[in-house]
């Protein structure tokens, strides 16, 4: 395993931060896999998963079993890790400019399109190689304007030419769920099998440029830009939501690490001499636009009536908001039949706060589908 340190552009004189990437390889041909955790710095379950994944990868490398390269970034956000205010940890938005750490990655398709005019043809492998070379070349020329930009640029540069990219996050209170690109539903179902995810949701590009879309989205965009060329979705990317923020435990993380390792064996990134047994798909891939989100129409004390992981029916009471002055109770019901997979951990709602998420079959939303810009 090789360790690389990536200094970030200093925010102020006298301060410096850096990212660290771990590179597992036996110098053999194979896919490039990129896995990071903690991009939202206060989402720590995935960071513990990588703690338990690293020895599995090291043992595989010691046994000469790595095909291609596996890149692990154990913590993707050293800026956010240092953000506390009034004894609370805030790792989702950068204090300096209020931006979400998982938005505004560079639009690689737009950057490489001018370089590829007239160069792509009917050979998909050749096209992938040319596109990746162009991506590496444009990223190498980018100059970061500040510390946050330099963090984004470093992470995206490490991931831009990957075949598989997993970005490990968590929700507020939730069961395991996955986000994938709409053009990669089969690949997403494979990941869901091995990780044991009952909620896998697909969406086309959101325009918010989150990290996962910065890896998979360019391939969809380049297909549209060059309709006559053979361009596969060469990078499968997923945001893996490892349950809720408090679900940081040895039992969960060791099992999750073993599941990722088994998935990597199934994908040919690790060759232990045999393929793993392919698990059942817990539940089919759903449209993210079929997720019913209840937002608080009024402020109040939050009283939940159901737990994440429960199947619910349209009209079932999920949450009530209680006005402590009038003592009125306002109960809100599910708009769909589906799997209740996430809810807000905060128990006092301000108006318009997102409260509950139910993944169903009926499209009920349109427009911008990501939470908390
Ligand atoms: Zn997150």
TrEMBL record:
<dbReference type="Pfam" id="PF24827">
    <property type="entry name" value="AstE_AspA_cat"/>
</dbReference>
<keyword id="KW-0378">Hydrolase</keyword>
<keyword id="KW-0479">Metal-binding</keyword>
<dbReference type="InterPro" id="IPR053138">
    <property type="entry name" value="N-alpha-Ac-DABA_deacetylase"/>
</dbReference>
<keyword id="KW-0862">Zinc</keyword>
<feature type="domain" description="Succinylglutamate desuccinylase/Aspartoacylase catalytic">
    <location>
        <begin position="29"/>
        <end position="107"/>
    </location>
</feature>
<dbReference type="InterPro" id="IPR055438">
    <property type="entry name" value="AstE_AspA_cat"/>
</dbReference>
<protein>
    <recommendedName>
        <fullName>Succinylglutamate desuccinylase/Aspartoacylase catalytic domain-containing protein</fullName>
    </recommendedName>
</protein>
């Amino acid at each position: 395993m090789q360790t690389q340190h990536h200094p970030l552009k200093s925010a102020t004189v006298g301060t410096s931060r850096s990212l660290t990437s771990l590179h597992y390889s036996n110098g053999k041909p194979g896919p490039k896999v990129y896995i990071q955790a903690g991009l939202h710095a206060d989402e720590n379950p995935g960071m513990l998963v990588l703690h338990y994944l690293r020895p599995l990868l090291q043992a595989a490398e010691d046994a000469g079993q790595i095909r291609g390269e596996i890149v692990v970034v154990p913590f993707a956000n050293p800026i956010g890790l240092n953000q506390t205010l009034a004894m609370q940890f805030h790792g989702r938005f950068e204090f300096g400019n209020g931006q979400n750490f998982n938005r505004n990655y560079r639009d690689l398709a737009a950057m490489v399109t001018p370089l590829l005019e007239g160069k792509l043809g009917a050979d998909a492998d050749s096209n992938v190689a040319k596109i990746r070379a162009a991506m590496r070349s444009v990223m190498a020329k980018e100059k970061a304007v500040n510390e946050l930009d330099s963090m984004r640029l470093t992470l995206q540069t490490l991931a831009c030419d990957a075949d598989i990219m997993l970005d490990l996050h968590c929700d507020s209170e939730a069961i395991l769920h996955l986000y994938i690109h709409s053009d990669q539903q089969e690949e997403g179902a494979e990941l869901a099998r091995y990780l044991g995810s009952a909620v896998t949701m697909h969406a086309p590009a959101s325009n918010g440029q989150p990290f996962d879309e910065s890896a998979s989205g360019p391939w969809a965009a380049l297909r549209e830009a060059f309709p006559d060329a053979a361009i596969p979705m060469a990078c499968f990317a997923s945001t893996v939501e490892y349950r809720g923020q408090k679900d940081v435990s040895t039992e969960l993380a060791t099992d999750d690490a073993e599941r990722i390792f088994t998935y990597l064996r199934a994908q040919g990134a690790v060759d232990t001499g045999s393929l793993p047994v392919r698990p059942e798909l817990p539940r089919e891939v759903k449209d993210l636009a079929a997720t019913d989100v209840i937002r608080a129409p009024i402020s109040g004390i939050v009283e939940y009536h159901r737990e994440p992981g429960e199947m619910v029916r349209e009209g079932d009471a999920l949450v009530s908001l209680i006005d402590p002055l009038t003592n009125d109770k306002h109960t809100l019901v599910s708009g769909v039949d589906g799997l209740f997979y996430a809810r807000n951990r905060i128990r006092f709602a301000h108006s318009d706060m997102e409260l509950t998420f139910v993944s169903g079959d009926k499209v009920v939303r349109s427009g911008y589908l990501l939470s908390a810009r």
